[in-house]
Amino acid sequence: MNIKINNIIKTNNEVGDNLTPNSIKPKDFKVDFWKSKNIEFSFGEIIEDNSPDSRDEETFMGPTPKPSGTDLRSWDMKLLERYPPFYAPFCDMCCLCTFGKCDLTGKKGACGIDIKAQQGRFALLTCCIGAAAHSAHSRHLLEYLIHKCGSDHPVDFGNNIDIEAPIMRTLIGKAPKTLGDIRESMDYIEEENLHLLSTCHTGQEGNHLDFESKAFHAGLMDHIGMEIGDVSQIAALDLPKGEANTPLVELGIGAIDHDKPVILCIGHNIAPGVGIVDYLEDNDFEDEIELCGICCTSIDITRYSDRAKVVGPISKQLKFLKSGVADVVVVDEQCIRSDVLEEAQKKGAALIATTDKMCLGLDDRTNDPVDAIVADIISKKDDGALILDPEKVGEVATKLSLSLSKSRKSLKSLPDMDKIQEDAFKCTECEWCVRVCPNSIPIMDAVSSAGKGDFESTEKLYDHDICYTCGRCEQECPENIKIMDLMAKIGENNLKKEKFNIRVGRGPIQDVEVRRVGAPLVLGDIPGIVAFVGCSNYPDGADDVAKMAEEFLERNYIVVTSGCGAMSIGEYKNEEGKTLYERFSGDFDARGLINVGSCVSNSHIPGVAIKVANIFAKKPLEGNFEVIADYIFNRIGACGVAWGAYSQKAAAIASGVNRWGIPVILGPHGSKYRRLYLGRSDKEETWNLTDMRTGKLIKGEPAPEHLLYAAESREEATVNIAKNCIRPTDNNKGRQIKLNHYIDLHKKYFGTIPEDVYRYIRNEKDIPITYKNDVKEILERNDWEPRELVMEPTILDFPRDE
Amino acid sequence: MNIKINNIIKTNNEVGDNLTPNSIKPKDFKVDFWKSKNIEFSFGEIIEDNSPDSRDEETFMGPTPKPSGTDLRSWDMKLLERYPPFYAPFCDMCCLCTFGKCDLTGKKGACGIDIKAQQGRFALLTCCIGAAAHSAHSRHLLEYLIHKCGSDHPVDFGNNIDIEAPIMRTLIGKAPKTLGDIRESMDYIEEENLHLLSTCHTGQEGNHLDFESKAFHAGLMDHIGMEIGDVSQIAALDLPKGEANTPLVELGIGAIDHDKPVILCIGHNIAPGVGIVDYLEDNDFEDEIELCGICCTSIDITRYSDRAKVVGPISKQLKFLKSGVADVVVVDEQCIRSDVLEEAQKKGAALIATTDKMCLGLDDRTNDPVDAIVADIISKKDDGALILDPEKVGEVATKLSLSLSKSRKSLKSLPDMDKIQEDAFKCTECEWCVRVCPNSIPIMDAVSSAGKGDFESTEKLYDHDICYTCGRCEQECPENIKIMDLMAKIGENNLKKEKFNIRVGRGPIQDVEVRRVGAPLVLGDIPGIVAFVGCSNYPDGADDVAKMAEEFLERNYIVVTSGCGAMSIGEYKNEEGKTLYERFSGDFDARGLINVGSCVSNSHIPGVAIKVANIFAKKPLEGNFEVIADYIFNRIGACGVAWGAYSQKAAAIASGVNRWGIPVILGPHGSKYRRLYLGRSDKEETWNLTDMRTGKLIKGEPAPEHLLYAAESREEATVNIAKNCIRPTDNNKGRQIKLNHYIDLHKKYFGTIPEDVYRYIRNEKDIPITYKNDVKEILERNDWEPRELVMEPTILDFPRDE
Amino acid sequence: MNDRVIPWQPTVIAGPKQALLATPETAKLMLKKAKRPLFVVGPYAKNEPLMSHVKEIAEIWDLPIVTTADTFKSFHDNGIESDSYGIVEIANLLKDPEWEGIKGEGQNDLVLFVGCIYYIASQGLSTLKHFAPHLKTLTICKYFHSNADASFPNMKDEEWEKYLTKMKTK
Amino acid sequence: MNDRVIPWQPTVIAGPKQALLATPETAKLMLKKAKRPLFVVGPYAKNEPLMSHVKEIAEIWDLPIVTTADTFKSFHDNGIESDSYGIVEIANLLKDPEWEGIKGEGQNDLVLFVGCIYYIASQGLSTLKHFAPHLKTLTICKYFHSNADASFPNMKDEEWEKYLTKMKTK
Ligand code: SF4
Ligand code: SF4
Ligand code: SF4
Ligand code: SF4
Ligand code: SF4
Ligand code: SF4
Ligand code: SF4
Ligand code: SF4
C-alpha cells in the first residue's frame, strides 16, 4: 500500500510554533512566514512525485495567504464606502435569544443591538449557512473521492489549464497538486466558517459594517468551498476539464422515458449518482433504466455520464414527484423538498437518503445487505432507507427500480382529467391561494377555469414554471383542492412540449481562452461577461432568464451560466424550435454560451476573472487577494445575475462575488435577502480612483453603479446589466461599445436615452456614434466636462505614506 | 529554535488514504483503523518528549472515535423516544429564504418543511451558533496560547488529575499531551460544525428527529470546544488545576475602587486580560490600577490573578457602564452589549476591541505604535481602537486608564438625585415600559414613585438584578426617561451593599475526589450533583439561583456552578452577611460548592460524570461515547440548572449535557428556546430498561423524568431538580434519601406528598421512613406492585441478536 | 391598531393567525359548547382577588383545575382542589389527542388559561395552536394573548374584575 | 381579525408596528399636510385603468412621479412625465435625509406608492419604516401594506376604483 502525506507543512525559523498552517496566528501571521522555504514530509512508503511541484517555483507570496476576516477588512470597508448596505428588514423583530423577541423598530434589543447591525448579522448568518452548504458538501465529496481514488490522485486538468484552482491559489497561497492537498484548504475554510458563525451569537459584533465585512468573508470562503468541490470532482471523476464543446443532453419532463424503470436523483452531491451510474454501467443496465435528476445533481451526473437526463431545476420537483414517474427517488443534499419522503410515499416510490444532511428519519441501512434493504422496501416494511455508501446506493436503487417499475405502473400517471376538474370545481374563489402565492400569480383563475373544464390558464402557468409548484396555495386552500395535481396533470398532458436540451457543464475556462479574451475584455471590445446563476425563484417564470441570456448573446457578450439558471436557459426555444445551446457555441468568447456546470462550478466564474488578472495581466495570485479583487473590480466588465436566487447559498455566492469586485443583480425576491449594496451615483466624490501609474486621484464614474441590486422586472434588470458592465479601464472604443448597448437597451425598454449616460463619458471619443447628437444634448444639459482617462485604476490606498 | 510536530498521525495498512484523521471517511472509518499502531512523526529539531505518552499504553478503542453525527444517531433516537421534543414555536413563520416568509401554521413552507422540522432546524441552528461561539473562542485562545507557550507546552494538570480532558479522550479517542495535540480536536469540531450548519440550509433535513439528533451533535461538539478552551488556558496560563480551596475574590459593583484608574474587561476570552495583568505586573501597576471584569472574562482573569475583581454577571453591564466608573473598557467576545461603544462614548471612556468577533467599526490599530494609539484616543480623534494583539492591549489599556482617570473624574458619577427625579417625573404611566420588559416587572411604578422622590421600589428592582438592565423599557419610553440612569444611580447610592465574593474557578475535579464520591453518587447516598450554570435571564432576580443552591447544599447535594450562575450565587448573603462561598467548602463532595470557572469550564461538569464512569466504574473512554452516556444517564444523579439561560451557547451546552444523559432544567424564559425534551411518566412502557447482567427487560421509572424542562417558578424548579436526581441504580438506601428530599421539598413548596412518588418505589425498602404511612397510602391508591431492582441498567440494544 | 388586541408583550406577535377577541359573553358561549373543558391556572392566582375568581368560575362551570408552577399549594391551603402540572407538562399532554386526561376522562376540547406568566403561557399556547387542533384555547387574563384561539383584551384591573364577575353566571 | 387590514400577503406581517388603515379621506388629509410629497408608481400602472388614475391623481395633487421597474416607458409613451428609478434605488435615496430630491428640491416628507410588486414594495416600505423617520409612507394599492405608515385596505376592484376616484378631488 502506498502512503504519502501530501500536506506540505511550511515553517519558518522565526515562528517556531506556527505548525498548523490552517490556523491563523493571533499575530505571527506574517508575510515572511509564507515566503520561507517549504519543507515537505512524507511517511510510509514514499512515492516519487513527478507532477510539477510548486515548491520548485520561486513564487512571491503576497500579504494575505489564508486571510482571516480582519486581514481583508480594509478592502471590505472600501467597497462598503462606495456601496453602503441598503437594509430592508424582513421582520422588525429579533428572535435569536430568549431575551427576545425584541422589537427593533427605532429601538435597540435587550442585547443592545440595533436594526442595522441585526440586518448585517442576518446577512452574515445567511452567508455562513450558504457557505456551509457548499463547503460541507465539498468536504463530503473530497473525502469520498479520496477514498475512491487515493489522496495522491493528481489535480491536473491537462495542458490547456495551468491554473486549476485560481481561488485556492489566491487565497491559500498555493495550488493543490493532488486531492490530498485540497484538505489544507478545506481545513482553512472550516476554521474560518466557525469564527464567522460565532460572530452571529448574541453579544458579539455590534457594527453593521463589520457584520458586512464578515459576510463578505463568508462569501469568499464559500467560493473556496465551491472550488474545492468542483476541482475535486473534475479531477477524480474525469468530468469535462474545460472543453468548450461538451455534448448536449436531454432536458425536460418530456425527455424522460416513462416506460422504463426510472431512478430520480435530487440534490447536489454527485456521490450517489456516481454509484448509480457505475452500477448501471458495470451491469449493462444503461439502456434498460432511465436515470434522471433534478437540481445540480442532475447537471453533475450528466458531466459524468451523458446518458443521464436532466428533468429540470428545483421548480420541477413537486411537479415531477406528483407525476409518479420516478420509481426510486434518491436524495442527497440541498434544495430538496423537505416533504420528499411524503410525496414519494404518496406515489409508492421508494426513497433512498444518502447523506448525513438529509436522513429523513429513515433507518440507517448502510451496513445491511443489499437484498435485505430491497426486500424491506418492496414489502412495504420500510418506506425507504438511509444508505451512506454511494456504491450500495447504486445497487439498491437499481434493484428497486427494476422491481417497482412493474408494480407501480398504475401509479405512474395522475388521476383522469375529469377527476381533476371535479376537484377544481370546488373552488369558491376565496382568493387565498393568490394571496399566499409568493408571486401572487393568478392561480385562482386557473383553478376556477379548470373547474369549468378550461385548462388553458393553468397551462400558461405551467409553462416556463410561472408557477414553480412551491405548494403554498394548495396548503392554504380551504377546499383542499389538489392544485399541485392539477399542475402535474398539465405537464403529463404536454409531455411533448417539455423536451429541451442543455450543454453538459464544462467546468473551468481554459488558459488559452483567457489569453484570447483578456485584452478585449479589459478594454471593452467584448462588452462584458454576464453570468446567469442561481435558483428558480423567478418573479415571472423561467423564460425571463433565457430572454436575458439571448439578448446579451446576440449583443456579443460572453454569457456564462450554471445550475438551475443553465437549465432555465435550456428550457427556452426560438420559433424554429432551437434552444440557446443549439444556437450559440460553448466557447468562452463573444457570443459564447458557457454552462460551467453545477452550483459548485460557480467558482469558475470568479475563477476566470482571476485568471484574466494572472494570465493576461501577469498579476501574481498567491496571497494577493486585494490586488486581484481591485484588478477585477476596476477592469473586468462582469456582472452576475441571480434572477431566481432564493437560497442562503445564493446569498453566499453573491457576497463572495461582490468581494471579488463583481456586481450582482438579483430578481425582486432578492429584496427579501434584506440587504443590498447600492452605490450613489449622485455623490460624485464616491467614485474617485487612484491611477497607479501616477499616484494621482482621478474622477471616476459609477462603474459598477451598484454592487448588489434587486430589479423589479426583467426589463429593468437587462438595462442595469448592460450598465454594470462598464469599467474604468474601457478604452474609448470599448466604452462606446458598452454605452451603445446600454443606450440601445434603455431605448428598447424605457423608450429614451438614459439621462445618466453623461456620467460615463470621459471625453467625446466615448460617445457612441449612433447616438452622438442625443448624447451631446444630454452632456450639455448636465454641465458635462471632459475628464482624464485613468490608466491603472485602483481603489486601494496607493501610493501610501506610512 | 526547537520545533516539534505534536500531532500524532495514525494510520492503518488497510486504509491507505485515511491520512487526515480529522476527516471522517464516508465509509472506511472502522474500528480497526483506530486500533492500529500509531506512527509518530517529528520534524525540525527533535526534542526528547519525556511526558507519559499514550502511544505506549495499549488502549482499547471503542466504536466511535471522532464520531460523525450519524455515528451516534441511534443513541439520539433512544433518547428522543423517551423524551420526544416538545415544540413551542416562537414564531409561526419561517423567514430563512426568499421564497418566504412562509406561514407554517398547519401548513408546509414553500420548501416543504413543516413546523416541527422547522423548530428542530431552529434548535440545530441555535446549537451550531452556540457551539461556534465557544469553539471559535477556543481556537483563538489555543492559537494564542501556542504562540505564547509553544505547541509543545504540556497539558499536564499534575498528579491529582490523570484524565485531563475526559471529553476529548472519549470523543477524539485520545488525550492531548501538549497544546499542539489539541489542534486535532479543534480540526475535528470545525469540520463537524460545518456539516451541522450546512443542514440548516433550505432543502436539507426534513425530519424533526434528525434535526434534534444533529442538535445533540452540535451540543456535543460544543462540549469539546469548551474543554479545549479551558484545558488550554489552564495548562498554558497555570490557572488552578482542580484545587478545591481556591481563594475568594471580591465581587460586586461596590468592590471596585472608584478612585483608582479602572480598566473593565467584558466578555469571555482571557487573552486581552492576560495581556493587561502581565503588563500591570511587569510594570508594578497592580496597586495603582483597578482591573475588573464582567461576564466570564472576569472569572477567568481572577483565575489568572486573584487581584482582579468581578463586577458581576451580564446583568450588571449596562448598570456599570452607565455608572461611568470604568475609564477603559476592553471588550473581547460574547455576551457584550452591542451598544458598548456608544455607552462608553457617553461616559467618555475609551474602548478597546480585541478580537475579530467584535470590531465595532473601529480602526485596526494592531500594527501601530502604542503611543500613537493612546494619543489618538486621548485627543478624542478616535473613540477607541481595534487591537488584535493582547500584549499591546495591556499596554494601551494601562496607559489610557492612567491618563483618562484624571480627566474623567466628573464622568465617574451620575447626575444628582434631583435631576434623576425630575426626569422620572415625566412619567405618564402609559405602562409601555412594563409591556416591553421581558419580565413585565413593575418598572412603571418604580419610575413614577421615583418621580415623586421615593426610590424604594427602584431599589427593590435593582437588588439581585430583578431588573437586569436590558434597556428595553428605556428604549420604549415615549417620554424618553433615562430609566437606566435611574437604575445605575441606585447602585451608586448603595455601593456598600453591593460587595460580595466568589470562589476562584478551580477548573476540573480531581481524580481522587471522583474516587471518593463515585460509589455514593451511583448508589444514591449523595443525593445528586446539581449544576447551576448559564446566564442571568432570570424571571425574578438572581436570588432565586442562590436560594436553590443553598437549599441543595444544605441537603448534602454537591453543587457545581460556573459563569454568571457562579456570580449570582456569590451575590447572595445570609442574615449574618455571609455568602454561600464562605459558608460551604469548595470540595467536590456532599455540601461542596464548586465554582468550576467560566463558560468554557462547564466542560468539567459532564467531565466529572465521565470520570466517574472511568475512574470509579472502569469504563474505557476512548471512542466509547454511547457506553459512557448510557452509564451516566442511568447512574449518575446529576441535574443541570440553567435558570437564566438566554444564549445560543447555553442552548448548545444543554443539548450536549442532554446527549451525555444528564437532564437540564431551565427557567421560564427557556420556553423561548422553542424546544424541550419532555418525558411521559404516564406512559409506563417508555421507561423500560435492560439489565446488562441478565439481558432481561425490566420495568424502570421516569428517572430522569424530563431531559430538558422549563419551570415557571423557583419552587417548581426546586422540586423538579430533586426528582430529576433519581436514577435506576440507586440502592434502597440511596433511593430513600433521594425520595426523602423530593418529598420534603414537595411538601415545602406544594404542601403535599407528591402523588407520583409511587412510580419511584421499587419495593418497600425504597420508602423513606419519615413518610412511610403517607407513602403507603399513595401506593395503595395507585395499585402499586413491587418490582425488580435493576443491576446494570442500560437503554442500549443489549444483548442484541444480529 | 386597537391597543386592546395587541399582544400584551407586543413582540409575542407570531404571524398571521391571531386570537379572536373574547368578551365574557363569547367566552361563556365557548364554555357552553365545550364537552370537556379544563382550567389551567398559574401563579398569579396564588393571591386574591384572582384566587377567588378562579374558584367561583371553576365551580359554576364545573371545571377541573390544573395549577401550574407552585400554585397548587395556595389553592390546597385554601381548600381549592387542583392537579399540579408544570405549564410545559400540561401543554405537552394537551397536545396528545390520545392523552387520557387528568382524571382519565379523556382529552379536553377547551382549555381556559388564567394567571400564568405571560411569556411562558404564550409559548404553551403556541404549542397548542400548532399541535393541538383537537382543542380550543381561551385566556381570561387581563392581557391579550394572541397565541390563544380567543382571549380577553388588554384591560385595567377594574374592567377585568367586571369581566371575571360576568364569567360567574351561566 | 379584520381581513381588510391583514397584509395582502399575510406573512408580510413584520412585528408590532402596523400601518394605519387609510381611507381616501385620511389619505387626502395626509397629502394636504405634506410639504413635499412624491408619487412612486410601479409596473402595475403600465396598464389601464391604473395609469389614468395615477395621471389624474398626480395632476390634482401636483405630485412628481417616480416610475419603478420599466414603467417609465408606458408613461413616457402616454405622455406622462416621470423620473425612472429602481424601487430599491428610490427607497435608498428616500432614506437619506440629505438627499437632494429628484429635482433638487430636497428630501420628501410624504411618499405615495402604487402599483409596485407587492413584496418588493413591502421591503422598500420596511426600509423607510426603519430608516426614514423624516417621511411618511402611504400606499393606495388595493392591497393592505402593513409596512407603510398608512395604507388602503385590501379591496376588490370596484371598491378600489371608488377609492381612487375619490383621490381625484382635493
Ligand atoms: S419572522 Fe423570522 S425573524 Fe421574525 S420573529 Fe419570525 S422567525 Fe424571527
Ligand atoms: S439577540 Fe438581542 S435583539 Fe435578538 S432576541 Fe436576543 S436580546 Fe433581543
Ligand atoms: S404552487 Fe404555484 S401557484 Fe401555488 S403558491 Fe406556489 S407558485 Fe403560487
Ligand atoms: S384557495 Fe382554493 S378555494 Fe380559494 S380561490 Fe384558491 S383554489 Fe379556490
Ligand atoms: S426555508 Fe422553507 S419555510 Fe423557510 S422561508 Fe424558505 S421556503 Fe419558506
Ligand atoms: S431594563 Fe429592567 S425594567 Fe427595563 S425592560 Fe429591562 S429588565 Fe425590564
Ligand atoms: S414607558 Fe415611560 S412614561 Fe410610560 S410608564 Fe414607563 S416610564 Fe412612564
Ligand atoms: S454565563 Fe451566560 S451570560 Fe454569563 S457570561 Fe457566560 S454566556 Fe454570558
Automatic annotation (TrEMBL), chains A, B:
Taxon lineage: Archaea, Methanobacteriati, Methanobacteriota, Methanomada group, Methanobacteria
Gene3D superfamilies registered for this protein in UniProt: 3.30.70.20, 3.40.50.2030, Carbon monoxide dehydrogenase alpha subunit. Chain M, domain 1
Residues the record lists as binding [4Fe-4S] cluster 1: C91, C95
Cofactor details (free text): Binds 7 [4Fe-4S] clusters per heterotetramer.
Region span, Disordered: 48-69
Binding site for [4Fe-4S] cluster 2: C94, C97, C102, C111
Protein name as catalogued: Acetyl-CoA decarbonylase/synthase complex subunit alpha
Residues that bind [4Fe-4S] cluster 4: C437, C467, C470, C473
Gene expressing this chain: cdhA2
Residues reported to bind [4Fe-4S] cluster 3: C427, C430, C433, C477
Cofactor: [4Fe-4S] cluster; [Ni-4Fe-4S] cluster
A Gene Ontology BP annotation from the UniProt entry: response to hydrogen peroxide
Residues binding CO: H134
Quaternary data: Heterotetramer of two alpha and two epsilon subunits. The ACDS complex is made up of alpha, epsilon, beta, gamma and delta subunits with a probable stoichiometry of (alpha(2)epsilon(2))(4)-beta(8)-(gamma(1)delta(1))(8).
Assigned keywords, A-Z: 4Fe-4S, Iron, Iron-sulfur, Metal-binding, Nickel, Oxidoreductase, Repeat
From TrEMBL, chains C, D:
The organism's place on the tree of life at top rank: Archaea
Source organism per UniProt: Candidatus Methanobinarius endosymbioticus
InterPro entries to which the protein is assigned, alphabetical: CdhB (IPR003704), DHS-like_NAD/FAD-binding_dom (IPR029035)
Any Pfam family the entry gives: CO_dh
Highest classification ranks of the organism: Archaea, Methanobacteriati, Methanobacteriota, Methanomada group, Methanobacteria
Function summary: Part of a complex that catalyzes the reversible cleavage of acetyl-CoA, allowing autotrophic growth from CO(2). The alpha-epsilon subcomponent functions as a carbon monoxide dehydrogenase. The precise role of the epsilon subunit is unclear; it may have a stabilizing role within the alpha(2)epsilon(2) component and/or be involved in electron transfer to FAD during a potential FAD-mediated CO oxidation.
Family assignment from sequence similarity: Belongs to the CdhB family.
GO biological process, one term: methanogenesis, from acetate
Name of the protein this chain belongs to: Acetyl-CoA decarbonylase/synthase complex subunit epsilon
Subunit structure: Heterotetramer of two alpha and two epsilon subunits. The ACDS complex is made up of alpha, epsilon, beta, gamma and delta subunits with a probable stoichiometry of (alpha(2)epsilon(2))(4)-beta(8)-(gamma(1)delta(1))(8).
NCBIfam families, alphabetized: cdhB (TIGR00315)
